[in-house]
Structures are given as structure tokens and as C-alpha cells.
Amino acid sequence: MKHFKTEDFTLESGSEISDINIAYQVFGDFSPSKKVVWVCHALTANSDVEDWWNGLFGENDLFNSDKYTIVCANILGSCYGTSFKSEEKLPLISIRDMIEMHQKLADFLNISSIDFLIGGSLGGMQALEWAVTNPDFISNLTVIATNAKHSPWGIAFNEAQRMALNSGENGIEAARAIALLSYRNYETFDKTQEDNEEKLENFRAATYQKYQGEKLRKRFTKESYWILSKSMDSNNLGRNRISIENALSKITAKTLVIGIESDILFPISEQEYLAKNIKNSKLEIIKSLYGHDGFLLETKQILTVLKNYFIELKVED
Amino acid sequence: MKHFKTEDFTLESGSEISDINIAYQVFGDFSPSKKVVWVCHALTANSDVEDWWNGLFGENDLFNSDKYTIVCANILGSCYGTSFKSEEKLPLISIRDMIEMHQKLADFLNISSIDFLIGGSLGGMQALEWAVTNPDFISNLTVIATNAKHSPWGIAFNEAQRMALNSGENGIEAARAIALLSYRNYETFDKTQEDNEEKLENFRAATYQKYQGEKLRKRFTKESYWILSKSMDSNNLGRNRISIENALSKITAKTLVIGIESDILFPISEQEYLAKNIKNSKLEIIKSLYGHDGFLLETKQILTVLKNYFIELKVED
After folding, report:
1. Which part of chain B has CATH 1.10.1740.110?
2. Among A47, B74, B242, B309, who pairs with A72 as Cys (CB 3.0-4.6 Å)?
3. Which residues on chain B are in Cβ contact (under 8 Å) with A163?
4. Residue from B102, B230, B111 nearest B161 by CA
5. Domain B2-148+238-313's class?
6. Domain ranges in chain A with CATH number 3.40.50.1820
7. Are the beta carbons of A210 and B155 separated by less than 8 Å?
8. Which CATH number fits domain A153-229: 3.30.70.20, 3.30.1330.100, 1.10.1740.110, 3.40.1170.60?
9. A184 marked ligand binding residue
10. Do A189 and B158 touch (CB under 8 A)?
């Protein structure tokens, strides 16, 4: 893991942060013959894309470091090596702030353009923002299960999580359990957490929720969880840009939008909206038992969609 | 409000409770010429059915106390006047325990049979249980947005709420915000809590969640919320009855099952399952922007369905 340091930064909210230290990883060498792939990670992930997105990123995968130079930076607000100082305990970090920081890092790395920019969920929000704000910088854009403006439904889910975080020390466990409900759906729990014993309590679905809560508490901080949930809420490509449609019309990258049929958090309607309003775009829908989490789990399907898309675009993969 | 007292009671779990005091209300006099309507209330409601189900129950409504004798008892575990002593701080109260208590009260009131038994959600669970356990006692049964066995999805929602309750003093506020997500859906929040201002935070959907959380904290106890959420989880008509299908086949009441198309907590598939497995049953689906909460809010549609059903059955309404 490498670190990129920068002194001062004014957030979109107007607040100042300082002593910023961005953790990032580069997989593969920089070379004029190699295409640059930039990955924007989601809420609780990190710069180690070969870990959390294996099947797409790794030695034997489509995006491997022999063929590509792959960059992934831990986002501003996250707790995996990225840090900063702030007057405010929990400053509001917008998606635009994250992209301004990604751009600073890209400039520092002497990247003149990104051949493939890819992200799902909160990562998709960043990728869209970058393609809107600096269209010439991005040649190909792939976004999965994301949106142009976060929905009232998504904000309500996030607020319930922040209310849980505020309740006390282990609130992050409840917050994760809430999030999991939005990442999955009725079918997921029905097919994977059904009890057939005749009992009165200690059901599998309940045990699973507690397990997932504890697991996150051990690897994440409540401060980062709070900040990034507010970042997600703030997502609105149209803010101070006349309209969302106007913002999306700025994107010149060849764009692939992938939606997951069973996603209740970022429903297909949001993916259709993106594809409809981005000029050079194509929409692909994949099926999954896992709802929104399909963006991490259905790597085989995503791979197939990406490979076909590359053939169509006559891109060497 | 009246009170029914009973000394000792052995719960389905084997635990003992004592000094039980059940708060209940009777609307209208008992008279041989009047039909008896019994209402089973849901999670955070109470015996005042004319308050929380007005539009169906009240002076000018279908179920009025001039024509019917209407009984509604605050359920065991709830905090609206019903109380008990227990060795365990939070005993497990099953739906069967609630019905055993309702039956004791019905016997005390010299009710020889119930002409109309009606309930939605947790109230529907009770109504189904009563019709299974004492079929001859119930002539007509109407259940709305409920199930025969609580789903892993429903249990996961409840566990997230209990994790929030456990987090600290105001955990009940987060619990209510979580519940609200399951009572509504994407469309509900989209149509009622959209922001059009270009802001970075303090979105309407978040404010709404906080408001609903505070509102419940002021009127409910965390102990009751915990107990009743476990009661809901325990719902399984098939427990120790060979199978759910076998249990449902015991019901002899003429049964109307009402489902709400947009209900994500008690989806239509669960209503179809009930109607399919209850002999003299009819299924009606209503539409609502409000998802599961439609069972409380769509009284006009429920009224229309009930009136048509009464005509079909040649019941005087």
C-alpha cells in the first residue's frame, strides 16, 4: 500500500480538512503500452481490489496487472489507511470531494487519461461524477448498481443506520444488519436462512444478522461508517448543474450500465435512467439471488457482460 | 378501558408468568341479537380499535357498536395497560400464548362464539392461530397482510431492530426507523419524501425517519417492543402440528385473506399460500402506495372488499 499526501483541502461543504493521507494501490507497472484501469470502491471496501473483487481483478482475471495498470485508492472518509485532520468531528464529504481527491492522485501519478473507469454502488457514484466533471479524462466507463441521485428510500435506510450508530457503542452492528436488508431481499433470506426446526427463537436469519454486525464492527470504524453514509446521501449529479439530465449529457465516455434485477436499493429504474441519459451507453441487466450484493458476488455474469461489451467495442481485452 | 386479571400462566416456552392484567375494551353491549366482532391488534397498537382503525371501526363505520359487540384486548407483552410479573426480564411470548389469553378473556365475557374475527399483520397471526386452535369458535375470519410462518426476511428485519434496541437508551428510535422501511417501500419514500432543493444533507427522508423514531419512543417501551418482535418471529402455525398445511386445514371459518400488492414485509406470495391452504377462503388483493402500512391506511379499499364479501356470503352488514 502506498500513500499520497496533500496539505489542505476545501470540501464542497466549505469546511477545511488538512494533513490528508490517501492510501492507494497500483497493480502492475505504468508503461505507455498498458491501459489504465481505475477502480472506485464502495462503502466499506478498500484499495485492495484484488481481494474484494476477485473474479474480475487478479492474476488470472480479466483485469490483471500483466495487461493493465490498475489503480484503486481508499476513498476520503474511509478508514483503510486514508486519514485527515478536521475541525469538525464528522465533516460532510461529498462524492465530488472524493473525485477531486482521486483526480489529485491521478495527476500525481502522471496519468493523462483513464482507459477504463469502473465502480459499483458508492463506487459507481464516484465513477459517474468523475465522468461528468472531467469527461475527456475517461475513455470507457462501467457503472454497476448505482444512481445519479440517491433516492429518498436509500437515504431512509442510511438514516436508520445513523440512528443505530448514535444509539451507543455497538450501534455499528445494528447499522450493518440494517444495510444487509437493503443489500439482499426477501428471496435471499428465504433461500439461504430458512429454519425447518420447530423452535421458538434463535432463528438462523437472526444469528446471521448478528454475525454480520460483529464482523463489520471488527473491521470498520463508526466514524467512517457515519461519514460515508452521509456521502452516499449527498449524491446528486445535478447539484448546481441545472439538472441531472444536463450533468449526464456531459459524459463522453463509452458507458456500460449494469443493473441487478433483484436490487431493492438501486433498482433497475435507476439504471435505466442512467442509460437513457448518457449518450454512448448500453444497459445490461443481470440476475442474482443476492440483490444489490450481486455487484460483488456475480463476477462471472459481470465478466461475461464485460467481455461481450469489449468485443462489441472492438477493445482488446 | 377494562381489566381482566388472572393469576398464573405457563407460556409455550415453559416459563411462568403471574399477576396478569389484560387491558381490553368492549364497544357496544352484549346482547343475543348482536353479532360479536373480535379484533386482534398489531405490534404497537392497543385495545382502542376505534382510534387506530377508524374508517372500519367507529360510530359511522361498517363495524359500529350499535350493530355489533366489538371486543379488542391489548395483547400479552404490550404496554398499553396489559402487564404481568415474570422471573425472566423478557419472557418469550408466542402467538399461541396471546391466543390462550384471548380465549380466557372470551370465556370470562361469556362469549360462546365469535362471528367476525379480524386482524392484520401481527393481529392476523393471532386471528389465524385462534381459528386453527379453536375452529368451532370462529364463524368468519378476515386476515390482512399476515403469514402462517414468519419469514427469514421478517426475522432479519426484527433482529436488526433488536440489535438497535440493545445498542443503547434511544435504540427504540432506530428500531422504529428500521421497521418503517419494511412497512413502506421505494415508491412510498420516492413519492412522499423527495427533495428538490440542491442540498448536501438534512434530507426529508432522514428527517422523517427521526420524527417517526421519536414518536414511537414517546408512546412505547423498549421491553414491549423487544418481546413483541420475538413473538412475531416465533409465528409458525405448523409448530408441533405436523405441517403448516395441516394446521391451516383445521380452519373451518369462512375466510377472507386480503393482501397488499406493494407489501414487501408480508408479500402477496404469503397471502396466496394462506388462501390456497384454507378451505373456505377467498383472496383479495388491494393496491397501495404505502406497502404493508396499507392495512391501516387503505380502510376505504378494505371496506369495499369487506362489503362485497358480505354480500357474497349473504351476511347482513
Report:
1. 153-229
2. A47
3. 164, 170, 173-174, 177, 209-210, 213
4. B230
5. alpha beta
6. 2-149+237-313
7. no
8. 1.10.1740.110
9. no
10. no
The answer on whether A217 is annotated among ligand-binding residues is no
Which value, in Å, is the radius of gyration of the alpha carbons in chain A? Answer: 19
Helices marked H in chain A — which ranges? 49-52, 95-108, 122-133, 152-167, 171-183, 186-192, 204-219, 222-234, 244-248, 268-277, 294-297, 299-313
The tens digit of pLDDT for each residue in B70-114 reads: 999 999 999 999 999 999 999 999 999 999 999 999 999 999 999
Query: A157–B181: do the CB atoms touch at under 8 Å?
Result: yes
Check B47, B94, B121, B262 and give the catalytic one. B121
Place of cell 433482529: B159
Q: Can you tell me the distance from the alpha carbon of A49 to that of A259, in angstroms, rounded to the nearest whole number?
A: 20
Q: Which residue of A has its CA nearest to B267?
A: A186
Measured between beta carbons, the chain A residues lying within 8 angstroms of B13 are: 200
Q: What is the ipTM of this complex?
A: 0.96
Mean pLDDT of chain A: 97
Nearest to B275 by CA among B169, B167, B181, B141: B141
Q: Is the pLDDT of residue A317 over 70?
A: no
- The answer to whether the beta carbons of residues A143 and A283 sit under 8 Å apart is no
